[in-house]
Structure formats: C-alpha cells, structure tokens
Automatic annotation (TrEMBL):
Name of protein: Ferritin
Keywords, in A-Z order: Iron, Iron storage, Metal-binding, Oxidoreductase
Domain Ferritin-like diiron: 1-140
Function statement: Stores iron in a soluble, non-toxic, readily available form. Important for iron homeostasis. Iron is taken up in the ferrous form and deposited as ferric hydroxides after oxidation.
Lineage: Eukaryota, Metazoa, Porifera, Demospongiae, Heteroscleromorpha
Reaction it catalyzes: 4 Fe(2+) + O2 + 4 H(+) = 4 Fe(3+) + 2 H2O
Binding site for Fe cation: E12, E45, H48, E89, Q122
Enzyme Commission number(s) from the entry: 1.16.3.1
Gene3D superfamilies, per the entry: 1.20.1260.10
C-alpha cells in the first residue's frame, strides 16, 4: 500500500507538471480561459500530491518524492489537449480504484477512507473534461467557436474549485 501511495505521488506530480505545460501552451496560443483553468488544475494536482505525502507522514511511512518526467509541450489543438487531459485523468482514476480495492482487501481501513475522497474527486475531474469536450461538438471548431469554448473553459475554473470545496 505504501509503495502504491508513493507511486501516486509521482503520478500527481506529473499531472501537475502536465497541466502546467498545457496552461503555458494555452497562454501562448491566446486561450486565456483555458490557460486559467489549466493553471488552476496544476495547482490542484500539486495539492493532491501533498495530501498523499501528509497521509504517509501521518501513518509513519517513508515518503519518496520521485523525479517527474517532462510533459509534452506542444499540442495540435485545444481539443486534442483536452482529450489528452481526459486520458490522463482516466489513468489516475484507475490508479485510485486499484489502491482503494487493495486497501480494502488488506483491511487498511484508514487508507481506504483516505482514498475515498480521491475516488469521488476523480468522478468530478473526468466529468469536467468530458463536458469541455462536448462543447466542441455543440459549439463547433471554427475560430469564433474556439473563442466561445475558451470562454466556457475559463468559467469552469470557479465551478471546479467550488465543487472541490464542497
């Protein structure tokens, strides 16, 4: 269980770097709304990583902070970037589900309870990205549509943060 949690620290760290890279790309491409969203996501992933570090510290387990591999820095389009973000979140969802299953099987109920927040959080993370991707089909992919989608994604920063606070 401790190894799985330490591995997850690396996964969350990578997600933070990945979203930071996405935010930077959006910033340079003029997608201000998406940049705001992905900067906020980067911060959120770092907080997720920190929660795991603190949990391991609280249970007296050794923490390993791994080196983080460099995320991609170029994307073909805003839509492709959002698809890549969803694929990353789906991988994180699988990792947390495996950890929760293992914790329950091993009778590690405090870690199982700890992981429930993440399991629920992943539902929200995937839903937000799926909603973003639906906008491309609903609004379109031409330049005026991309401006509107960028505005919509920017408005999701507040909604996503409010859901996290609940």
């Amino acid at each position: 269980m401790k190894k799985m949690l330490n591995d997850q620290i690396g996964m969350e760290g990578y997600a933070s770097s990945y979203y930071l890279s996405m935010a930077s790309w959006c910033d340079t491409m003029g997608y201000e709304g998406a940049a705001s969203f992905f900067y906020a996501q980067s911060d959120e992933e770092r907080q997720h990583m920190l929660k795991i570090v603190l949990h391991l510290n609280n249970i007296g387990a050794a923490v390993t902070i791994p080196a983080i591999k460099q995320p991609p820095k170029d994307y073909k389009s805003l839509e492709d970037m959002c698809k890549a973000a969803l694929v990353n979140e789906q991988a994180v969802t699988v990792a947390f589900a495996r950890m929760a299953e293992y914790a329950q099987k091993e009778g590690d109920y405090s870690t199982f309870a700890f992981l429930q927040w993440y399991v629920n959080e992943q539902v929200q993370e995937e839903t937000v990205l799926e909603t973003m991707l639906q906008k491309f089909d609903l609004v379109g992919r031409d330049k005026p549509a991309l401006v509107e989608i960028d505005r919509i994604i920017g408005s999701m920063v507040t909604k996503s943060n409010k859901a996290d606070a609940a």
